[in-house]
Amino acid sequence: MTKAVVRYVGTGFAGWQVQPRQRTVQGALEEALRTISGQPVRVTGAGRTDSGVHALGQVCSFVWRANADLDQLRRSLSCMLAPEIRVLSIEPAPREFHARKSAAGKRYSYSLYLGPEADPFTAAYAWRVSPKLNLDRLASLCPLIEGEHDFAGFQSSGASEKLSTVRTLHSVRLAPGGVFSPLDARDLWRVEFHGNGFLYKMIRNIVGTFTEIARGALSESRIEERLSSPGPYRGLTAPAHGLTLIEVLYDPPAPAAS
Q: Of 50, 150, 184, 187, which residue is the catalytic one?
């Protein structure tokens, strides 16, 4: 098994997952690998980022021939792929490694721009919200969803998997600056999420709810109401372009027996 770390700008893609007649990140990787190997190669991603969502550290796994020069493979892929996709690393992985099933957690960041006017250098990577948004109020909301909860009330309809909706958010915090580094970051902020897993549009729905409360349109009690709701989410969903997958986390391998 082979493990690769990939970064991409999601603006021009219909998400990660292969879809008929759509340009996707998984599809681009599989096509490049097929060209190199001469046969189909199935790539498994750690998460199915939606259309327009970016990634700094998406992880994927695929089967590749043993003893191959993986650094040469990485360079070849980087030459073949569109400039919006870059393969950061490729390394051997244990046979049982699975990019999604082996993941222990993920880190995401959602970027907000509070400037008085739209800015061309942030428009593709941050959601422009009202400059009157109360940042202190927004920061105070973050701890309310930390810990283990049933997040069904924050999951959008259309989720493809009928699994448990209980997730643990280890930390949620508001921080200055965006994920990327534009020339002027004075009006950029980001909400950082670290959890063991995330439901369909869960982060975008949480951010949408947070911003509604922080501008006075909703009561803080709406968070508890949604944590008690069976779902699906009914409310403002933050747009996809502000969301970035930062990192996929894996447990360290167990030490070898002495």
A: 50
Q: Would you state the structure tokens that stand for residue 84, as one six-digit string? A: 């919006």
Pairwise CA distance, residues 49 & 58, whole Å: 9
> Which residues does the chain have with pLDDT short of 50?
254, 256-258
Whether this model's pTM surpasses 0.90: yes
Q: Greatest CA separation found in the chain?
A: 63
Q: What is the 3-state secondary structure (H, E, C) of 91-117?
A: EECCCCCCCCCCEEEEEEEEEEECCCC
User: Has 251 been annotated as catalytic?
Assistant: no
What's the full length of the chain, in residues?
Answer: 258
In whole angstroms, what is the distance from residue 207 CA to residue 191 CA?
8
Q: Residue 216 phi/psi, 5° resolution?
A: 85, 10
Please report the pLDDT score of residue 257 as a whole number: 43
Cis, bond preceding 232 (omega within 30 deg of 0): yes
Please tell me the predicted confidence (pLDDT) of residue 104: 96
Residues 6+ apart with CB under 8 A from 39: none
Return the SS3 of 97: coil
pLDDT tens digits for range 203-219: 999 999 999 999 999 99
